[in-house]
Amino acid sequence: MKNNFTIHRSLLKFLLALIIIAVIGVCVFVGLQISGKNRLYNKSDSKRPDLASVAVTWEESTEQEEGGEIVSTPILVTEEDSDNWEEGDVRYKGVHYRYNSEMLTFLFMGIDKDGTVKEAKNGIDGGQSDAMFLLALNPKTKNATLISINRDTIADIDVYDKNGNFLKTIKGQLTLQHGYGDGKSISCERSVASVSRMMYNLPIHGYCAINYGAIPKINDAVGGVDLVSLEDITSGGKTIFKEGQNIHLKGNQAVLYLRSRDCDSFESAGRRTERQKQYLAAYADKAVQSIKKDVTVMVSLYNTISKYMVTDITVDEVSYFSTQIGEYRFGETNIVSLKGETVMGEKFEEFYLDEQALYELILDVFYDTIED
Prior knowledge:
Number of strands: 21
Oligomer: single chain
CATH class of the domain at 8-47 and 101-215 and 284-338: Alpha Beta
C-alpha cells in the first residue's frame, strides 16, 4: 500500500491560484486608470475570439431523410438579421452575443521547476506548464473568473528544435508547449499563443509563470490561511490534518494541503480539486483584507517571489491596483474548469475538450447579450 497521500509535482494549480488574487490580479487594472491602458489591451494578437467561424450549433442540429439516410442539417450560428449587428457578433440558440472588448484576460502557469527561474539549457528544456489558468477580468461587472485548463488537453502545439528553429505544429498535450523555449519569456509567449488558438483566438493580454517553490512564500505573505480540513491528509505515514479540523496553514503545510492526494482512492483527484477551490476562496478573502490594511503588501510579495516568476506585468502596475482590488468579486463559484473527457493514450493520459461546452463558456464569460 502506497502512502495514503503523495505529493504530485505535476499539479501546481494553486501556485497560480494564490498569485492570481495576491499579485498579478492586482496589476492588471492599472492600465484601465493610467497611461498603460492602451498598452495592456494592445498586447493581445487578436481583437476578439473567432466564434463566428464556427458555422453550426451542436445539440440544435436537426435530422432529415435524404436518399433513405438520416443526415445532420447544420444550423448557422451567425445571422446578420439585426439592425444592431456588428462584425464579430454571433447568434447562438436564438441569442445575439457581442464580445466584451473591455475584458482583460491573463494566462497563469505553474512550471515544473524546483528553484528560481533560470534560462533553459536549450530550446526544448523550458519546463512543462503543469498547471494552467486563465484569469478573465470584467471591469463592467467587477467579476473575476478563473478558468482551469487541464494540462493534458490535446491541442495544436508548435514544435522547435534545440536551437529554437520551428519544425512543425502537432497535436499534443498543452503542457508541453512551454518546454519549447527558453524557460522564460519565449516559452510563455508560445504558451499564450497555443492557448489563445485553442480557444478560438481568444485575446490574452498578459502572462505569469511561477515555479512551484513559491507556494510557501505566497501563502505566508498574507499571514497564512485558516480553513476546515475537508478530509484526512496523511504524509509519510503520519496524519497531518484530520477531516473537520480547524487548521491554520503556514509554509509547507499549504503545499501538503493543496497538492496531496490518495493515489489508491477513486476520485481522489476530484477531492483534491475541492480542497484547492476551498483554499483559493479563503486565500482571496485573506489577501483582500491584507491589502485593505496595507496596500504595500502586494508590492512586497511581488518582489519576494520575483525570482520564481516570469511575467510581462510590472511592479508599478501591481502597486497601483492594490488600492482597487476590494471592488472585485471572487469566490469558489468563480472557478470553472474546461469540460471534456480523459482517455488513456499510448503512454499518458489525454484530455479532449468538449467543444460545445467550450464555445458556450466563452460566450458566457467573454460576451454580452445584445437586444435586437
